[in-house]
Design goal:
This protein is α+β, with helices and mostly antiparallel strands. It has helices at residues 3-57, 62-69, 72-75, 98-103, and strands at residues 78-83, 86-91, 106-111.
Amino acid sequence: MPPPIERSHAYGQSSIELLAALPALVLAAAIAVQLLLVGYSLSIADGAAEAGALAGAAGRDAREAAREALPGWARGRSRVSAADGRVRVELRPPAPLAAVASALTVSSEAWSRPPSGGSG
């Protein structure tokens, strides 16, 4: 009877179609993970900029406070600047290629008023 032969042929074709679609699925997953890493990096940069601005408002070193607010892996991938109450944090997210990381660099700024006058 021919049906068993056709049936095994259908299983073989399904395997080939899966193999053909696998690179596209892997690429889609890699892009999704990269986008999540960019979003996470932006969230980290936001928090660090805010921490720096709050430290500056309290009279402490805003740049150092922003750098300390970053997790260890992000400190080497960041650039922090602080002047006149404005703190800017630029962060390169993790990526498989350095060019990709540079292209996807995120930044965040926070501002606060400098502390007023002297103490009490």
